[in-house]
TrEMBL record:
InterPro entries: DegT/StrS_aminotransferase (IPR000653), PyrdxlP-dep_Trfase (IPR015424), PyrdxlP-dep_Trfase_major (IPR015421), PyrdxlP-dep_Trfase_small (IPR015422). Belongs to the DegT/DnrJ/EryC1 family. It comes from Paraburkholderia dinghuensis. This is DegT/DnrJ/EryC1/StrS aminotransferase family protein. Keywords: Aminotransferase, Pyridoxal phosphate, Transferase. The lineage of its organism: Bacteria, Pseudomonadati, Pseudomonadota, Betaproteobacteria, Burkholderiales.
Length: 384
């Protein structure tokens, strides 16, 4: 295939409709552009989406997760168990609140934290759990919460990638303890940057508002107090308007992603890539929102590296990504005592995974083109 006659296919691209663009222009002209009525409407709509539970927005998923930890009372001396196969934000926020991340390796099939290993990692200092739903695929929520209840642990779900995903017919966010979403442009729903925390009650929602804006409470025109140490994490009305415009389409977005994921499974069936041992995600069409379609490369059977493989995709007009290198191998984490070999499944996944294009405006033909390219590269660079 020659590259010249086909448009470059990025691995991700947000879909923003004209009404949202017009809505943003209206906000900009309105005279109130930071946190205000659009944010209130966005929070109300998110709360409705999450079964009526209280929801507060923040200016990033990272801030959302960190404030979730603060609301759960996590601080110095506490341990928080999480997965090493995630975006580094997941464990950086544990250090941010002065606590210690404890990793439990992943199940190489689901690529999510292995709940047996999670349970084995619990100590008297464990205060909370941060499960991550990688690529929008939830962990076994029944088992997770049974473990949390049994050991008296808080759960801060890193559902950054799981907006629109479900567990046994119930939406992620409508169930569970504290649930953190991200609205970064790569996520299934975007507000450019942003995030939202689903809370258990109004008291937690008030605390979330304080942590979000300098710990301030106001009563009347001239009454102001600051009684907790808060930061500056509020979402602008411009961002909230983008989020509101997105929310209208979330069911269609999720359906389209599921359709494209099915096309990937069909496209790979019986091809060279599968014969060579290219790994596919779990074919879950009940719970996952198909945030990403990630393959793993059988590098021992190829004559090229992952980077060269991705370069070959690029030469064929196809974008790809890596989500994620194992967190504990980053310098900051090595300096704090983590070593290669500690979490072999996450290390292997992090070293071999490639995220293929998946976004709502893609077509089944685009997917077929990606599958053909992957098969072609595997054929061209197979050993022996
Ligand atoms: C995107 C993401 C975050 C952080 O969200 P931001 O909005 O980028 O701060 C945290 N955890 C996971 C798993 C993510 O994918």
């Amino acid at each position: 295939m020659t590259q010249s006659n086909v448009a470059f296919l990025p691995f991700v691209k947000p879909e923003i409709d004209e009404e949202t663009i017009q809505g943003v222009a209206d906000v900009l002209r309105s005279g109130w552009i930071t946190t205000g009525p659009q944010n209130q409407a966005f929070e109300a709509a998110l709360s409705e989406f999450c079964g009526g539970r209280p929801v507060r927005t923040f200016n990033s998923g990272t801030a959302t997760l960190e404030i979730g930890l603060r609301i759960a009372g996590v601080g110095p001396g506490d341990e928080v168990i999480t997965t090493p196969a995630s975006w580094v934000a997941t464990s950086n926020v544990i250090y941010e609140v002065g606590a210690t991340p404890v990793f439990a390796d992943i199940d190489p099939v689901t690529r999510n934290i292995d709940l047996d290993r999670l349970e084995a990692a619990i100590t008297p200092r464990t205060k909370a759990l941060i499960p991550v739903y990688l690529a929008g695929m939830p962990v076994d929520m029944d088992r997770l919460y049974a473990i949390a209840r049994q050991h008296g642990l808080r759960v801060i779900e890193d559902a950054a990638q799981a907006f629109g995903a479900t567990w046994n017919g119930k939406r992620i966010g409508a169930i569970g303890d504290l649930v953190s979403f991200s609205f970064h442009p790569n996520k299934n729903l975007t507000s450019i940057e942003g995030g939202a925390l689903v809370l258990n009650n109004e008291a937690e929602a008030v605390l979330a508002q304080k942590y979000r804006l300098q710990g301030i409470t106001r009563t009347g025109f001239d009454g102001m107090d600051c009684d907790v140490l808060g930061g500056k994490y509020n979402l602008t009305d411009v961002a909230a308007r983008v989020g509101l415009g997105q929310l209208k389409h979330i069911e269609r977005f999720t359906e389209q992603r599921r359709k494209l994921a099915r096309a990937y499974f069909a496209g790979f069936e019986g091809g060279t890539a599968r014969k060579l041992g290219v790994g596919l995600p779990v074919a879950d069409f009940a719970n996952s929102n198909w945030h990403m379609f990630q393959i793993t490369l059988p590098l021992e059977k190829l004559t090229i590296s992952r980077a060269a493989f991705m370069e070959q995709l690029k030469e064929r007009g196809i974008g790809s990504g890596v989500h994620y290198p194992a967190i504990h191998l980053f310098t900051l984490y090595r300096e704090r005592g983590f070593k290669a070999g500690m979490f072999p499944h996450a290390e292997r996944f992090g070293a071999t995974t490639v995220t293929l294009p998946l976004f709502t405006q893609m077509t089944n033909d685009d997917v077929a083109r990606v599958c053909r390219a992957v098969n072609e590269i595997c054929e061209q660079y197979a050993k022996g």
